[in-house]
Amino acid sequence: MNSTVAEPIVVARGIHKHFGHLHVLKGVDLEVAERELVFVIGPSGSGKSTLLRCLNRLEEPSAGSITVAGIDMLSPKTDINHARQHIGMVFQSFNLYPHMTALGNVTLALRKVAGKSRAEAEKIAHTALERVGLADRAGHRPAELSGGQQQRVAIARAIALEPRVMLFDEPTSALDPELVGSVLAVMRSLRESGMTMIVVSHEMGFARAAADRVVFMDHGLIVEQGPPAQIFERPAHERTRAFIGQIRQH
Amino acid sequence: MSAWDHFLQTFFNAEVMAKYLPDILQGTVVTIELAALIVISGIGAGLVLALVRSLAIRPLNWLIIFVVDLFRSLPPLVIIVLVYFGLPAAGWSPSSFVSTWLSLALVLMAFAEEIFWAGITSVAKGQWEAARSTGLSFGQTLVNVVLPQALRLTIAPLTNRTIAITKGTALGTVVALHEILGMASSAVSNSYNPSPLMLGAAAYLVLFLPVVVAARWIETRFAWKR
Q: Are A97 and B130 in contact (CB under 8 A)?
């Protein structure tokens, strides 16, 4: 869609990650343009989640360089807490704070990191909860929400900080099938608003409809990448073909 | 005199009780002061140690673990005796009150640290990651996200341990502390009658029964759906 827009907002070069003897990422290069939606697929253990977690330094890369929105993420001079405000992240297991309401979950970082007053933070949070269709659930605790609703609150928590990039780490994998749609709908509207998104997921239908580019990873390397039609219909590599064939069967 | 009368005369002698009631009350005040000081300083120090331990500074953690294990293994009575009779050799002679306070506060600190630490580590890693990914610092995450969840888990074991250790104030008798049991037992020797001991038991019940009931209430109050 917008893949011709200049100036990549995420530039990762030569990313390596070792976990002890395990070499999980073996020199990955990834560039993502502003407003682009990139889908990362691959078998489990291929390193796709680790790559995502390196981008906001939840994992420390063993080697390489990462720039997000012009910020050198790996420089010791970078205030990582400040930099992370620009990078929203959504997790497979939602990770909402169970002792806080939906509103409390969204306002925490607004108040503590962005320095908003309580009133300001709540106003922003209400808007964010509205965007994910949960304005009426602001006072509910996570335990009182369905999985789909929890994940949407988690998305609201991330977008409330107005990040430049959103990372989604298997956002629908922990959801019952009937709840997946509501989360994908929110992601689609986010995409339409022009958010730059990197999504690790196997939601092929969503990838086909919304992704600008699909990246296939295996054994810690990017095997091939391209528009969804090309990757799904005419993959160039045998490994990609085998993987696509496998997830099609499900 | 019937056996029943004899029993009453021995254990619930009104005359003896009346005579020694002021002593027991005085001892009760000492016990309350001591218990309050032990709870505040012991739990406070335990929490501080657990927070320091969460910083994961290795040599410091070894030291914390050593201290904690030491005070968890030694019988509180031994610690009290060592502090009261041993420290003067090092040039400081704490009173029996201070010796008992210090000793039991150290024991409570050690157990409280372990309980807080278990609470902190039981909070899922995803909670840290979610908070840090929104830009919260380590300290902000600890205070706003992890501790509130950890503390709920610690309330039940912590109150149980606190009750057990504050009851240990009775051990102060070995260093001539005039708390409830000390007062009661000297009254028993002076009156040749065990009735003051019954008074002392009543004083402990009055003190600790409400605490036990309150602990039960707190436990149910703070248990929340996950």
A: yes
